[in-house]
Amino acid sequence: MKIPNDNNNNNSSSNNSNNNNFSLSSSKTSSSNKRTIFPIRIMSHTNKRIELIMGWVKIITFCVGGFILGGVVFFVTGWFTAPYSETISNEDESKLAIIKRLTKNKWNAFDIQEDLNKVSPDSMRNFLLELSKEPHLAGSDRDEYLAGWIKSQWEAFGLDVVDQVKYQMLLSYPDPAKPNMITLQDDEHGLLFENSVIEDGVEGDDTNFVDAFLAYAKAGQISGDVVYTNYGRIEDYEMLMDPNSEYFTNVTGKICLTRYGKGFRGNKVQNGADNDCIAVIIFSDPADVAAEGTEDVYPDSFWLPESGIQRGSSFLGHGDPETPGWPSLDNVYRVPDDVLAKRLPPIPAQPIGYKDAAVILGAMSGELVPPDWMGGIAGVEYRLGGSFDPEKCATNCRLSIEVNNKLERKVSSNVVGILRGSEEPDRYVLLGNHRDAWGYGAVDPSSGTAQMMEVVRILGQKANTTEWRPRRSMVFLSWGAEEYGLMGSTEFTEHYLTKLKERAIVYINCDICVAGSVLKSFSTPTVNHKLLQATKVVPSPFNPEQSYYEFWHNWTSQGDSGNSEPVTNLPAAGSDHAFFIYELGIPVIDFSVKPDFHEYPNLEFYNYPTYHTGFETFALVDEILDPGFKQHQVCAGLNLVMGRSLADDLLLDFDPKQYYQLMKTSVDDFTTSGVEDKLLSLNLTLKHVRSAVQEFNDTAALWNTRRSSKAIVEDPLALRILNDQVMKLDRTFLLPEGLPRRTEFRHAIISPSEHDSYGAGSFPGISDLLFHFDSLTSQEQGDRTKQLDRHLSDLMILIKNAANFLKNPEMIV
């Protein structure tokens, strides 16, 4: 039997595809054939289907097996190679989130520009209007009211914590029933002159305005002849007391008449006492305060009228005189009266205006003063005095001074506001300004207070309405009783000394915001670039298209120094930053806008004409000094930029190399100025100090290299260590026992001069110990030489310790 060809069957099937029953119904073959052909055809189709099914089974089996095998391989591989973050616990995820947060830099230029755009001149004008509405002498009801007002404002602005901290301080006041008087009289005419104790036009305006006085000046009544002592500096007395000088005039037992300027009034009083003056009278000379003529004065200009009297403190210390070294809290120990008396000025002293000074100077006889001692009072021949002109004051002519100051313990408050840091809440960036004033205080201090209020308003609202919060805590401070001797800030630092020494990063001070048109700044070396950086961000008040730095740079280029780069000076001790740096070693920045001494050279060493007088009013600021409050915008802007940078930067932008530059320059100056030769003549040397300075330089360079490592910013512990090193660098320069003969000043590298609290310099201990060395007795010279020997050794050790402090913190040696 021949089996039909499959291809034919296929073809047949194909050809009869339209008749599915062809093989069964239409075939002519026999039944046997039917039986043969039908099963074969069935089997053929069945085999095809089985093959097809088996093929799909193989495919499915392969895929499933491959999937299972791949899954196993993927699982095993993933187990060993998966990133840690995919397998860590929730607790570890939280830890990584903390590390990420701690190493996030919050500072960005766009964000700070938004803050600067929110600074409102109208807002600051309103603040100043309230602050200067009435006189607010320290300890007065009005000053304490303002403390409460500031507290409530800061709370409304959204600070996290605001507290009013009160201290019982020993303050000094004139007696309203017995004003301090200066009289000139003779036997023939009786009373010829009596001074004024308040400015013309002020007395009727406000009965709360304090009579003119010098706080803490000794009470008493003195009569005698008068000697004119120029600015009352040490060099002025040296010339007067030199028997070989053509201007020799004995001041012993005389009342000394001195003009304000070129030094702190407390030093003027002390210099008079040291030279045996029996009292000191201080006046503002029109050569300094009315340089464009006594007719063009306030309210037409910022120059001082003839009746203007500068009030102020004559206390040379700082802090409550009764509690040196500890805070004036309730129930604390207070020094006994005999100790207190030694801390206060030893002679009577009183300020007057140049109208009254003209009467006294006009009655004096004696030689004409040196040309550079001449003042600007019209119609007056400036004579040295020592006696009176008999044509002006006849028989038994005498000048009398009666001081009736009294001491009172009064409450004075600090206001402390805190914007808590989110990453480092235990690190503090402090910004402050004092509140009390000798009168209305529109310039000093309320212009500074007004801009600080605006900074608090902007940052408080920002922290409460956006996601921003400072990395480190920002602390805002309104000090009480600064004018009496930095009382509020000193008591605060004594009260919280341990916390501040461990946690404070920097203190930024703006005592006076606006007294003129040009920025003047002071800082410790490690942060002296911060203000310069800020001026490159803050716009100029004269041209908003220009940065303040561009204006400042151009102004500096006009000077005689040949230096076009604006200069930041070393800080003195005239404001609230003093105790932070000189006692605690906390870096400081202090700034204000002062008169343009290119335009007014006489004001280079003078604060401003209406300083501490009854003419320091809101109108002075609003209409003359800063109409439009554009200079206030500069102050607020600088505080915003510096404050936020120091609070938000991951790495503190401090530069220890700047201390090397200062120390090296100072040691080199000792060589060129003859100081080193003087030391060598005493068998002393600067060699070891110089070597220590170079060692510090090498270590500071290595520290800067470590700081530039990218790995630092990824490690929060390394960040903290590096920041703490540079934050606390100034602490390494503190002498435990203080500078020689000045225990209240402990910073050995930068501190004020012993003879002028308004001045500052480097290595002050050396300069002070060599001061007038050749005029000392042999015994005194021997003692001073021993002090110098010890001090040079101390300097070497401190500088070496500072270098060691900057080394790798893992190594103790």
Give a summary of the structure in a few sentences:
By secondary structure, the protein is α/β, with parallel strands linked by helices.
Helix and strand topology:
Elements: H1 6-15, H2 22-25, H3 31-81, H4 90-102, H5 109-117, H6 121-131, H7 141-157, E1 161-173, E2 181-186, E3 190-194, E4 214-215, E5 220-224, E6 226-228, H8 234-241, E7 255-259, H9 265-274, E8 279-283, H10 286-289, E9 312-313, H11 337-343, E10 349-352, H12 354-363, E11 398-403, E12 406-419, E13 424-434, H13 446-465, E14 472-479, H14 487-495, H15 497-503, E15 504-509, E16 518-523, H16 528-535, H17 548-557, E17 568-569, H18 578-582, E18 588-594, H19 618-625, H20 630-648, H21 657-672, H22 675-681, H23 687-707, H24 716-727, E19 750-753, E20 756-762, H25 764-770, H26 778-805
Parallel strand pairs: 4-9, 6-7, 7-8, 8-10, 13-14, 13-15, 15-18, 16-17
Antiparallel strand pairs: 1-12, 2-3, 2-11, 5-11, 12-14, 16-18, 19-20
Helix pairs in contact: 6-13, 7-13, 13-20, 16-17, 16-20, 21-23, 23-26, 25-26
Shape: globular
Helix coverage percent: 40-55%
Major sheet: arrangement of strands: 1-12-14-13-15-18-16-17
Q: Report how far apart the termini are.
A: 112 Å
Uncertain regions: pLDDT < 50 for 5+ in a row?
1-46, 72-85
Beta-sheet strand percentage?
5-15%
Mean pLDDT: 89
**Structure annotation, total helices:** 26
Radius of gyration: 41 Å
- Which structural category fits the helices and strands? alpha/beta
Q: Got a strand count?
A: 20
Largest sheet: 8 strands, mixed
